[in-house]
Amino acid sequence: MEPEFISRPAFTVIGIKYRGRNDNNEIPALWEAFFPDKATLIEHKVDPRVSYGVEDNMDMTTGEFDYMAGYEVPAGWPTPAGLERWEIPAQTYAVFNTTLPVIRQTFDYVYSEWLPQSGYRRVPGPEFELYDQDFDPGRGKLTMYLYVPVEKTAVRD
Questions:
Q1: How many domains does the chain have?
Q2: Domain CATH number, residue 133
Q3: Distance CA 86, CA 39 (A)
Q4: Do 52 and 129 form a contact (C-beta atoms < 8 A)?
Q5: CA-CA distance, 74 to 72, in Å (whole number)?
Q6: Would you call 30 helix, strand, or coil by DSSP?
Q7: Long-range contacts of 130-133 (CB under 8 A, 24+ apart)
Q8: How many angstroms separate the CA atoms of 49 and 96, rounded?
Q9: For residues 39 and 15, what is the distance between their CA atoms, to the nearest angstrom?
């Protein structure tokens, strides 16, 4: 599984956030809480066919992390009441094509196999899942994209 490399400018995601370990499938429950009620509060989506699962702030001691289900909005757009915003910095990403049923295995592969031998290193900043117009669990379409912020490591002679 080789990634595609994409540079993205900074962008903003607005949605609902969770902090925890996802021990009891809280993330799927977060998405269920987001659609459709909370999602409709975001009136000006950059692309209403693309949603994001953003995560960062992993505490290696407790296993807790922040996760947001949301949509990209235009820069400077106000945050509706009851929602939160996450500013995503400009980054270069290694993008992995995966599916929802194997997302955990994809994360494991990226961090335990691909990164250590890739010539890249993980850089600070959130990673995110991108769900485009082809993602439709109700119809068995489960393809999604995992974006991991990276930079090329120094090459030694």
A1: 1
A2: 3.20.80.10
A3: 15
A4: yes
A5: 7
A6: helix
A7: 130/50, 130/51, 130/52, 131/50, 131/51, 131/52, 131/53, 132/49, 132/50, 133/49, 133/50
A8: 19
A9: 7
Asked, for residue 93, whether it belongs to a domain, the answer is yes
Residue 54 lies in a domain: yes
In a domain, 157, yes or no: no
For 53-68, how does the pLDDT look when each residue is reduced to its tens digit (9 = 90+)? 999 999 989 999 999 9
Q: Which residue is it, tokens 């407790």?
A: 62
Find the distance separating the first CA and the last CA of the chain, reported in whole Å.
Answer: 28
Q: What are phi and psi of 52, to 5 degrees?
A: -130, 140
Rounded to whole angstroms, how far apart are CA atoms 86 and 66?
11
User: pLDDT tens for residues 69-110?
Assistant: 999 999 999 999 999 999 999 999 999 999 999 999 999 999
Is the residue at 47 inside a domain?
yes
Characterize the bridge pairing of strands 84-88 and 11-20.
antiparallel
* Structural domain that includes position 95: 4-152
Q: What is the pTM of this model?
A: 0.93
